[in-house]
Design brief:
Residues 79-106 form a coiled coil. It is built from ten helices and seven strands. It is α/β, with parallel strands linked by helices and 321 residues long.
Length: 321
């Protein structure tokens, strides 16, 4: 009887271990393929250069957008450069034309304005064989803040963050997709953020707009995969840009150029990705923590961290006064 019990215990123990092992391996292998093995051993999954002659980039005069502009011009794309400040656009267009010998068009629009800006963009991109759209433009909080304080300090901020982070993505896709569908090929790269999938209290409105971008991108990919469209949704952690207010890059906080090179390397392997291994590891660690412990514990841990960043930002601001 005792032997039978031990045998049953061993049997069910082995089955349980086998199931857990299978679950881990079935997650780990595809992850390793799309993030490491595929890009390193097999190279690019798709030839982005064959998608069309033009690439469109929003929010292109700084940070990640500027890095995309240069990386795509280097590959021979002519560029539609869309951003807010005309003088910066003119300067960038001149720099890119001189360095990469490609054609550029500039469109100065403020994505915080009304939907009429999309008529202007539509008119300016008419007839171009657009192969790549990078929906990069985005705004965030000046520092982590309680939702109501954001609203009370600037009531228009909530409209602006939705207009820039969400409307720009959906409207630009609506303008460019028909061109891509006609030619049955195209790449759409949408900038979300790690904040869109990890707990981000005190960045509540920002992180919710970025969660929208993830959901939108994944369902858009499913709708148009069979029509030759590749959607990549990026969830970076910190990148050294004006938005993050981090000047010095490091292994954990890449320069925009390093980040974009990494994202282009894994284009086509998977839809939603941090696209930079150290950021991918942080997001996996967070997912494991949420799975292995209770959700409020993890949310609180991040909340406390963001509270300390808020405190530091507020004390710096009060010292400046
Ligand atoms: N940096 C990070 O750590 C990080 C992390 C996660 C996700 N992201 C996402 O990555 C994207 C790029 O971020 P970034 O750090 O490169 O930003 P950034 O350095 O602040 O650059 C933003 C660019 O967008 C333009 N822009 C801003 N507001 C605009 C508006 N209302 N209308 C038109 N253009 C506007 C800016 O032009 P002006 O110079 O004229 O203002 C600039 O060219 C964003 O979607 C962001 O949410 C960034």
């Amino acid at each position: 009887m005792a032997l039978d019990n031990i045998t049953a215990f061993q049997f069910f123990g082995s089955v349980a271990l086998g199931l857990v092992g299978f679950k881990i391996v079935s997650k780990l292998l595809p992850w390793a393929y799309v993030n490491i093995i595929g890009p390193a051993l097999l190279g690019p999954k798709l030839n982005i250069r064959r998608m069309g002659g033009w690439a469109v980039i929003t929010g292109c005069t700084d940070g990640i957008g500027k890095a995309y502009a240069k990386a795509l011009a280097k590959q021979g794309f002519s560029l539609v450069l869309i951003s807010r400040t005309l003088s910066k656009l003119e300067e960038l267009a001149k720099e890119i034309e001189n360095e990469y010998k490609v054609e550029t068009k500039i469109i100065d629009v403020d994505f915080q304005s009304g939907v009429e800006i999309y008529d202007k963009i539509k008119a300016r991109i008419e007839g171009l064989d657009i192969g790549v759209l990078v929906n990069n433009v985005g705004i965030s909080y000046p520092h982590p803040e309680y939702f109501l304080d954001c609203y009370q300090q600037n009531p228009k901020f909530l409209l602006d963050i939705v207009a820039v982070n969400i409307h720009s993505v959906t409207h630009m896709c609506a303008l460019v997709l028909p061109v891509m569908l006609n030619r049955k090929k195209g790449v759409i790269i949408n900038l979300s953020s790690g904040a869109g999938s990890i707990p981000s209290a005190l960045l509540t409105a920002y992180s919710a707009t970025k969660a929208f971008v993830i959901k939108f991108s994944e369902d858009l990919q499913t709708e148009y995969r069979a029509s030759g469209i590749t959607v990549q949704c990026l969830k970076p952690g910190f990148v050294a840009t004006k938005m993050s207010k981090i000047k010095k890059a490091s292994f954990m906080i890449p320069t925009p150029d390093t980040y974009v090179a990494s994202a282009l390397r894994i284009l086509g392997y998977t839809t939603t990705t941090a696209a930079y291994l150290p950021h991918e590891f942080i997001q996996i660690a967070c997912a494991v923590m949420r799975y292995a412990t209770c959700e409020p514990f993890v949310s609180n841990l991040f909340f406390k961290h963001l509270l300390s960043l808020r405190k530091r930002a507020l004390s710096r601001a009060s010292q400046k006064k």
